[in-house]
């Protein structure tokens, strides 16, 4: 598998992934690290496509984008606004072929890269885009499942660079294909990352902590990124629906465990207290009382996922 798109001098890193290049002489983060030495990442499966609309009868996309802005992207009135926003299942038929509805809903952001319902946006006040492209992880030569990537430089410290790759692995009902996509991703990104690379993988993995494919993912990239740590709390349940409520869901999610992750490679650290639990999303359970409320709750929902946010320092 080869890296597609514009020429990319250094192989990037993976599943909705983020690669941070620590510049020589860049300030090493410690307990008193400056905000300029940090980058915040938000990943969110918006469930904004025909399949979600038919399965869950979610509300109008425009209203949901406004809620996503309020409760996730522009968190706490902008005080915790993400530098990089990575989206999955956000159909161009809903948000526009160029993402014009996204940029209208998220003021101050621009589209950095896009492919197959996956979008990477960046906060122009914090970052400058310097490159972009995509990687094809489909099995057959005549098929395409592409993960877009984009490379940024910090405006405060231009020698600190960030490469983001937006990845969404196969469904939980197809674990063999997940494993194949992980290996194709490794080949597509190259066998080695450039010296000094800092890597973060963020997105809808469809993989629970402790599952074989979680171990496969970490081991596959261990040599190139120096080990991976999951910034998502192990007991944070990021999917919000249960099969008892929506029979079309082909799997039973484990209570209290995430399938959306932000994996952090060696040399990067998660800023303590910077993670947050998504606000504004009502949990739907399998209780009979909740099932009776289903038709009233669904149009008010933003997605069948909660957003995951982390602040990283290097």
From TrEMBL:
Superkingdom, natural source? Bacteria
Which keywords does the record carry? Endonuclease, Hydrolase, Nuclease, Signal
Q: GO molecular function, one example?
A: endonuclease activity
Q: Which SUPFAM superfamilies match?
A: DNase I-like
A family per Pfam: Exo_endo_phos
What residues does the Endonuclease/exonuclease/phosphatase domain cover? 42-305
**How far does the signal peptide extend, from start to end residue?**
1-29
Can you name this protein?
Endonuclease/exonuclease/phosphatase family protein
């Amino acid at each position: 598998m080869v890296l597609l798109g514009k020429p990319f001098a250094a192989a990037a890193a993976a599943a909705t992934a983020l690669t941070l290049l620590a510049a020589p002489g860049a300030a090493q983060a410690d307990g008193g690290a400056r905000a300029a030495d940090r980058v915040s990442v938000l990943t969110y499966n918006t469930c904004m496509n025909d399949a979600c609309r038919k399965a869950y009868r979610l509300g109008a996309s425009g209203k949901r984008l406004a809620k996503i802005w309020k409760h996730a992207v522009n968190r706490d009135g902008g005080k915790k606004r993400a530098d990089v926003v990575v989206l999955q299942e956000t159909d161009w038929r809903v948000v526009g072929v160029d993402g014009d509805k996204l940029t209208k809903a998220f003021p101050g952001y621009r589209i950095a890269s896009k492919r197959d319902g996956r979008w990477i946006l960046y906060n122009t006040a914090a970052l400058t885009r310097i490159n972009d492209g995509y990687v094809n992880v489909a099995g057959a030569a005549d098929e395409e499942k592409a993960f877009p990537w984009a490379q940024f430089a910090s405006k405060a410290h231009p020698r600190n660079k960030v490469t983001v790759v937006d990845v969404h692995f196969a469904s939980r009902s197809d674990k063999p294909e997940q494993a194949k996509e992980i290996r194709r991703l490794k080949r597509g990104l190259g066998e080695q990352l450039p010296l000094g690379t800092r890597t973060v993988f963020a997105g809808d993995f469809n993989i629970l902590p402790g599952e074989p494919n979680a171990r496969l993912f970490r081991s596959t990239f261990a040599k190139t990124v120096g080990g991976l740590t999951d910034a998502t709390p192990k007991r944070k349940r990021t999917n919000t629906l249960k099969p008892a409520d929506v029979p079309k869901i082909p799997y039973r999610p484990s209570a209290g465990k995430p399938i959306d992750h932000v994996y952090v490679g060696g040399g990067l650290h998660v800023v303590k207290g910077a993670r947050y639990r998504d606000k504004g999303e009502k949990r739907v359970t399998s209780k009979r009382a909740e099932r009776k409320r289903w038709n009233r709750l669904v149009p008010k929902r933003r997605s069948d996922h909660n957003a995951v946010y982390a602040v990283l320092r290097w």
